[in-house]
Amino acid sequence: MKVLANDGVSQSGIDKLENAGYEVITKKVAQEQLIDYLNENKIDVILVRSATKVRKDIIDACPDLKVIGRGGVGLDNIDVDYAKEKGVKVINTPAASSASVAELVFAHLLNGVRFLKNANRDMPLEGESKFKDLKKSYAKGVELRGKTLGIIGFGRIGQATAKVAIGLGMKVVAADAFLEEATIEVDFFDGQKLDFHINTISKEEVLKQSDFISLHVPAQKEYVIGKKELEMMKDGAGLINAARGGVIDEVALVEALDSRKLAFAGLDVFESEPKPEIKVLMNPHMSLSPHIGGSTNEAQDRIGVELASQIIDILGTPKN
Length: 320
Ligand SMILES: NC(=O)C1=CN([C@@H]2O[C@H](COP(=O)(O)OP(=O)(O)OC[C@H]3O[C@@H](n4cnc5c(N)ncnc54)[C@H](OP(=O)(O)O)[C@@H]3O)[C@@H](O)[C@H]2O)C=CC1
Ligand SMILES: O=C(O)C(=O)CO
What we know:
This is Hydroxypyruvate reductase. By secondary structure, this protein is an alpha/beta fold. It has helices spanning 11-19, 34-40, 56-61, 80-85, 98-114, 116-122, 128-137, 156-167, 203-209, 227-232, 250-258, 278-282, 297-315; strands at residues 2-5, 23-25, 45-48, 67-70, 89-91, 148-152, 171-175, 181-187, 193-199, 212-215, 237-241, 262-267, 286-288. The mean pLDDT is 97.
């Protein structure tokens, strides 16, 4: 049995598969050469992250393909229903990266409220007076503690984000298309656990009540945050998107930052990925990262092992 990990997979995942008798190839095959490569090498399983697309054309043209594995959550780069129709299993790792994405949200939030990106860039190499000027320029930070974090999309990552927020002493309000309530179990270093019950409210109420908003919905056909929604937000609010590009109207977002309606935005995902718009890249009030929400060693380890376990469950152990 052969597995092609086209966007990489953790060593722990490779070890688990190899121990079970699989051959794992960690080569990057260009999208346009994938069909030929999969067929010529009789690949049984393709593993992808977000870069490689597994669409109808590949599913139709590669009869040996038995499993498509997504290392991560969003399946928007795979034609899932079509694969199922054709008897190809699609697997993903829904919970493995939630904590990592949630932590990245706070990296962006803290960056925004304390101007870290610009402060880092402006740190003078020499000159006491420049240092003092800089200290004045960045003296108007705000605390997260006591502020309200609005979460739109209150599934696994939304709830993981709520846990961190509660730990920081923030109030959490949330909106979800499906969930009406959730109990968040926050664990502390000494083994204590505390439950927090949250009833979801409407998106409009979240927009009005929140000092900061973080988005955790799957890919959507329409903007969740456009001009109208930005106008409903508090003046000077901050907005984070570590969900999917296309969830926020970036043109409206840049306008809201330029007019100072919003104080800052943090984006891990972009409407035109992997080549974000220059206006987004150059905006001084944006905190940016290159789609790395789930890219921690811990999350990638969990993802690799979880994918390997699922593949072994589906296809067995060729060794035996
Ligand atoms: N930046 C990164 O590296 C990563 C990004 N992601 C992104 O985060 C997304 C969320 O992941 P996760 O929390 O695990 O997913 P979940 O499915 O657990 O949660 C998403 C929640 O959002 C709800 N929802 C869907 N549409 C809307 C809407 N328009 N308004 C409000 N709520 C909505 C869903 O409801 P329903 O079930 O009814 O649809 C669901 O409850 C992924 O789909 C992926 O795109 C994930 C991992 C890493
Ligand atoms: O898991 C996801 O959906 C991601 O975006 C990270 O690859």
